[in-house]
User: Fold N-acyl amino acid synthase FeeM catalytic core domain-containing protein from Thermodesulfatator indicus.
Amino acid sequence: MSLPGASPFRHCEELTPHSSLRGSTTLLSLRGGPQGRRSSLYRVSGRLLRHFVARNDCVSCRLFNDLINKKLVLPFKIFYCTADKRNMRNLSKEKKEIWRRRRRLNLSKVPECLKQRIVKVDFCSKLEEFEEAFSLLYDRYHEVGLIPTSKECLFFTPYQALPDSRVCIARSLETGEVTSTATLVIDSEVGLPSDSLYKDIIDRLRKEGRKPAEFTCLAAKTDIYSRNGLFYIFRILYKYAISKGATDLVISVHPKHTTFYELVLLFERVGPLRYYPHLENAPAYLERLELTGVQKRYEEAYRSFWEGQIVIDFFFNIALPEDTWILTQKYNMKPEVFKHFYLERTNAFQKMDNKLAKYLASIYLDELDYRVNYPLQAVS
Assistant:
């Protein structure tokens, strides 16, 4: 049902104070529809409006209907209530951050996607599952110009084959398609992917006795529900990292995504802007999430508003049916899967750094086969 004189709400709604009206009442214009057309104007007590702004709160449909004394059925649950610039300037830094975090969650429909389950996650173990993950990575990276065209139409790295790494996929419950993927790499004698740019910074963590793990090779289809599927992946990979004794998560993030990781996922920037030569000189910042005490940090950041409680419960208080058997999966790739992707389908093994090649050969390849077929790596 639409508001009088307005188009139906389809994309967004916003409550904004009418700047020309002063005094004890505030005139609000309700915007909605694809063109953002205005509806009727309603008078609301300025005192009540300031109350919600000061609390950094939202005006619900029910409350707004009470305010305007009309029975309206609206298709969205939340309206954002914003004050004039003077009131916003008076908000504390902490409240502004809460407002920004809450706004970002709702604009991205994160609470909706976490409450109404949209995907099922799993760690890749079968060849077909790795194929789906590597194909999605190629499609998205190629689309944004990070990698050149390849006849194999696959993108993967040596780190995804390490025994303690886990390649995770999120599969749509509606279509069965893989909509997003990411990989967790546990630190080992061959290091982490971000060592290529930030070894000096990651080494500091190691010298402090910490055990970092890296969130890498992220990709998702472009729709908002596929992107939000990464929350399910992040959740299970976070739990896996904890189970392997990791103390920190690191990730190299493109500058345009840093706000999301810092504001929503509570990462902290620890590395300066640098460029990845093997990804068309893509810029990146190194971000870090300290896992010790992470639940307390999330509770402090999110407990002041109800959408935030959904996030807290999702990450820390709710067990999904597949959690147990996913987290107890004992292996990453089988030898035949490694050979298919790194030796037969591509020449990725021959292009590897010698240290990585030797390490992976000791796990997946017979010693005789390794020395006969790859003599240069074997003697280097």
Summary: Residues 349-379 form one domain. Confidence is low (pLDDT under 50) at residues 1-62, 67-86. The radius of gyration is 25 Å. The longest helix spans residues 224-243.
